[in-house]
Structure formats: structure tokens, C-alpha cells
Amino acid sequence: MTAASDLQTRVHVPLGERAYDILIGPGLIARAGAEIASRIKGRKAAIITDRSVAAHYLEPLKASLADAGIASHAVILPPGEKTKSFEPLIEACDEVLGARIERNDAVIALGGGVIGDLAGFVAGIVRRGVRFIQIPTSLLAQVDSSVGGKTGINSRHGKNLIGVFNQPDLVLADADVLATLSPREFRAGYAEVVKYGLIDKPDFFEWLEKNWQAVFAGGVARIHAIATSCQAKADVVVADERETGARALLNLGHTFGHALEAATAYDGSRLVHGEAVAIGMVLAHEFSARLNLASPDVAKRVEAHLRAVGLPVSMADIPGELPGPERLMEAIAQDKKVKSGKLTFILTRGLGQSFVADDVAASEVQSFLTGKHPG
Amino acid sequence: MTAASDLQTRVHVPLGERAYDILIGPGLIARAGAEIASRIKGRKAAIITDRSVAAHYLEPLKASLADAGIASHAVILPPGEKTKSFEPLIEACDEVLGARIERNDAVIALGGGVIGDLAGFVAGIVRRGVRFIQIPTSLLAQVDSSVGGKTGINSRHGKNLIGVFNQPDLVLADADVLATLSPREFRAGYAEVVKYGLIDKPDFFEWLEKNWQAVFAGGVARIHAIATSCQAKADVVVADERETGARALLNLGHTFGHALEAATAYDGSRLVHGEAVAIGMVLAHEFSARLNLASPDVAKRVEAHLRAVGLPVSMADIPGELPGPERLMEAIAQDKKVKSGKLTFILTRGLGQSFVADDVAASEVQSFLTGKHPG
Fold this sequence. Notes:
- Two copies of one chain form a homodimer.
- With 375 residues, chain A is of the alpha/beta class.
- Chain A folds into two domains: 4-179, Rossmann fold (3-Layer(aba) Sandwich), CATH 3.40.50.1970; 183-372, Dehydroquinate synthase-like, alpha domain (Up-down Bundle), CATH 1.20.1090.
- Chain A has helices at residues 28-37, 51-67, 86-98, 113-125, 139-145, 183-200, 202-217, 220-239, 254-263, 273-290, 296-308, 325-336, 362-372; strands spanning 9-13, 20-25, 44-50, 71-77, 106-111, 131-136, 153-155, 158-162, 170-174, 342-348, 354-361.
- The interface between A and B is medium-sized, with 28 and 28 residues.
């Protein structure tokens, strides 16, 4: 068993009987067995992962579990968004049951957001719920999807439409695994880190402006950025576990972002989720300025920072042709449910002063988009 | 809107934020729209049902919903246990999403246990949970499966292995619909009614001994029997919502019963669930007597009552050949997880004095079964 590093940070998510810890630090996969064994009664685990992640981290994780007396079985799925569908779900449930996982045993998600969402759903429905551990291996999953308990798969009617709220029993965010991410993947995850500053932590945004190179380099600054993000997400989740109100703030940049992802047919070679969110956050700030809610200088500052780290910041930065503003507007309307011509948007009154606006006129959005469209 | 009948009874299930009512009485399908509209915010519903039930009750239910301003879409599945599998689940989720059911809208289960289990699972996972209403149309579903929140489907690894705990928002047990049940189906449901007396309500068992003809005839005695059963189940569920302890008492008669269902390959022409439970309850009482826990007279009294209503009470009552006692024992061991040669059983110390015994020697069970086996 490796000793806990001085760099290790803990974020506690106080959700009553569903409370759990997020551990952030180096070397956590090597310590996973001990951390898990101290938190669950069972001594069996099914590891759900994808082929790419398995190549790097499956054997070290299995070894760590074995050292702690936990027998493990691996369910290795194809990487990519298509894994969030019924067929892999059925396969995973079948393998987990075949491995005789009982209620006190664990399903472990070892991977990015796709694996975490799928494995969390599996853990929530096998035997009506078994223990669930998240080991997120992308920055995006560490700061966003692994915290909060949203799990699920996609439907032909839309993304994430089938699933359960299932809080993990433990999240292990191993900072070392981010070393194998491509720079583009790391930047995409960083967009969600910036988002927490823009929601309600202007000091954190300023800290990122000054320290982003250190965050990208790794070490203590990176761990601070991840821990601050996890704490921010945990605070929102605790206030609104099942997304009936304040949790909507986490969608800052996501309404425009989802429309751009749909407009590029979820083609990751053109635009990945974090990049769409980066552009979406700039648009949300520009739109807030246009509505005279915030100064245009705030939008410029957000744009400057995201551009500095290498993220796209405007529709013109997306390679290839985009559909026209009317088509983007249709995607937004489908995503959001238009009520009597009004939409719900996350807007801002200034740096780190985001709020939920539920009466945005669809016509205003369309006219704004037309002005911003590069075509 | 029809006025509530004087015969109507309400059982409240006090599960905190998941609390709900069970209404028992005549004419409840005709009043369903009003009862549902007063409990949910949405004005859309998806009715999940099977072809047999739909023929009788779908149109009256749709009319009642329409009168209350609730638009409904019906998802009609084949009747039978095979509907509790992934393919119908996927189809139902797709249709419910296609009907644009949102979180405040409802999925309504209109049918017996199979439909209730499937629809409850669908309601629990579409959009990570929408409102859920149970309208059980068999006696078994009214007194057992519609109360308590267990939902799910079967796996090739066993029954009910994939699902969620999802408490309904309302249960409407319409006593009138039992008129279309076959006598055999009614008797099978009655076995579960008797079970509540045998768990911890000896007075209720005595009442059933005296009044069973009136219960079978309908009217106020039947409503009393259903309401007492629902109250008994609700009490156990409130004490142990997620089945970590006392809820196991509800399995009285079920360990032997499940083994007999497996031994007859779930062939409903030979043995249906309630019949298996009836035989299982007699065996559990005889086994308790053999272990010197209870007087053999108690087992005889239980057997006499179940026989009087026309239920099978011994393995010899099952048509066709049964596998030998070793095979039955294997089925029990698979169902129950043998820990160092010990099994968990629901046994009794007397009439209505059941308890969870977690140290029953597998060898004792096998020797008992060998003595009882008709072969």
C-alpha cells in the first residue's frame, strides 16, 4: 500500500446517507484497493472501462485491488459516445451479474465521461443498486461528470435521456493519469474548470488567468484547480441534487454549446464537448452584454483567457461549414423546450455572477445568433 | 367525475419525501384522472399495459384521464413474464420519450405484476425519473407487487436482477377489476393475502379463516382484505425500504416457492407464483415444526385453510413430474447464496410469529425435502 501523498486533497460531498468523498492527488490508482476496501463491505468488483484506458490503467488497478483482497473482473467496452447506448448497457449488466457482484460489492468506472455515465447506470440497476466507485481518467470527467450522480445513456430522442441519479460511494481523481491525455482533451476539460469561476467564483477565474500554465504543467496547481472545481460542483449538487433549480447554473455555456455539437453532428474531429462549452460560454457572456446585463468587457476577458489556453472561442473557429442561424435556433429550441416563445438560459450580470433567466425571448436569441454567425 | 365511494379505503405509506397513498375501492379507474391530476403537475401520461388488460380497461382509463385534462398515450405490450426483459423495456422507454413525457408527467402501469414491474422501471429511468402511478389489475399486484417500490426485469442470470427501487406516487387498487380475473388467478393472489396473516397478524389469519368466502365473493370483505394486506406490506416497507433486514419476512414461503417455480420451468399451466407460495408457506410451517420451533398443528391449520380455498398445498398437488429433492436443493442454493453450508429462511414460532433465520443448515433442508418429496 502506497502512503497518501502530501499533495492529496479531499472534497466531501455531504448528501446525508448518500455522502461521499472525492480524493484528488497523484498515485491514487495505486492506492485504489485500500481506499475502496475501507469503504465497502464486499470483496468483489467489476471494473467497467474502455479499450484505450484499459491499455494504460487496468492492470495497475487490478493489482491494487488484489493487494487489498478484492477480486476483480474487467468489462472492456469500445471507446466513444456510441458506448452510451442500450446494447453495451445490456452487455455490461450481464457481465457484472455473471461476475456474481452482490449489493455490497462494487462496480468501478475506470475511464472518461462515457464510461462513468454508463457504469454508474449499471451500478444503479444491477440488483437494484450495488456499490459504485468512480475513477475518472479525463480532466472533464474529474471536474464534472464523475461528481453529482447523473448517470445514463443516450436515446434516439436525445442524449442522456435514459438513466438514474446514482451518487458514487467514492471518487478517485488520480492527477497522474492526466499525463496520457492529448493536449486537446486536456484543454477541453479545462473549459469546465473555467466554467466554475464564471458561475460564481470570480477569484478562481482570476487565479486561473494568472496560473493556467502551472495548471497545464501539472503538480500542485493542477490539483488545486481540480479540487476547487469538484468543490464547486459538489456545492451545487448538494443544494439541488435532482436538478429542480440551482443546478441549472452548471449549464452555463451549454445551451449554445449543445446546439453547436448538434450542428457538427457530434463529430469530435471538428468539435468536442469542452470546446463547444468554451464557445458557448463566450456567446453567453456576449449575449448577456447585448441584453445590457453585463459589460462587454467581461465577455472580452472570458474570450481572451479561453483563447490564451488554445480553446476555440467563436463559431468561426469551428472547422468546416456550420448550418445557418435558423438551424442552430431549432437545435436550441429542441434542447430547451420553448414555452410561449420564451427560453431558459444561463446569463450573467458580470464576472462570476451567473444566474438562471427563464424568460429569454427566442427572437432575441435568434437575432443574436444571426449577428454572430460566420456564414 | 364520480364521487368517492363509501367503500373506499386509503392506506398511506409514510416514506418521507417519497410518501404516497394507496386507494382501495370500487370505481377507481373511472376516478383515476381526477386522483392523478390532483397529485402531479404534468398533464401528459403514458399508459403501459398489456393486450389482455387493455381490452377491458384502457379506454375507460383514457376517458377518465381526458376528463381531467390529461392527454395519454398507450404502450401495449404482450402479456406474460417474457415482457420483463430488455427488449420490451427499450421499446417502452422509446415510446414514452416519443410521447414527450417530462419529469412532471406520469407513466401509468395498468396491469398485473409484470406490467407494474416493467413500467415502474421505465418510470424510474426515463429522464432519470418521471412520476409513476400504479393501477394494479390482479389481486396479486394489488396486495403485493404494486406496493413497495421494487421494479425491474429478469436476466438470464435470474429473475428481477435488473431494476430500481422506485416508489409510486399513487396506487389505485380498483376492486371492480378483479371481476375479470379467473378463479385460479384470484386464488393465487389470495395466497399472498394469507401470507400477511402468517407473518405477524394471527388475528387477520383467523378473520380470513372465517370470512374467506366473503372475500372471494367481493364487496366490503374483499376491500378489507386488500387494505389490510396493503397496510401490512407498507409497514414492512417503511421499516426497511431497501431490503436490508426485516423486509425479508415478505419472503415467507418464497424460498421453497421459487425452487418449485424453477423446477416447473415457470410453466404457468402447472404452477403460478401464488400457488408456489401457498405450497411454500405450508412447507415453511412444516419445516419449522420439524425443527421444533412451532407445533405441527400450526402447519396443519395453515394447510387446511389454503386447501379450503382451493390452493395447492403440497408438492404432490403439482401436475406432472417434479425433479428430485437434490435438484430442488440446488435451486434453493442458487436462489439464496449458501454461506458455509448455512441458508437464510423465513421460519415461524407459531401462528403469525414468523422470523428471519439466517443459520439454517443446508443439510436439514435437504433431508426435510427428501421426506416431503412425492417421487
